[in-house]
């Protein structure tokens, strides 16, 4: 029985979890648009930066 450390990667946009970062990356490419990811990132950045 292999006891490899299962490191789960989580999607920053939803509750998706993959075994590897590549899985999450593929998920991001297929389930989320790049624009949506960029919007989310900018949204998060603007929130932390209060004028
Ligand atoms: Zn996702």
UniProtKB/TrEMBL annotation:
It comes from the Archaea. This is C2H2-type domain-containing protein. Residues 32-51 are annotated as: Disordered. Residues 41-51 have a biased composition (Basic and acidic residues). It comes from Natronorubrum thiooxidans.
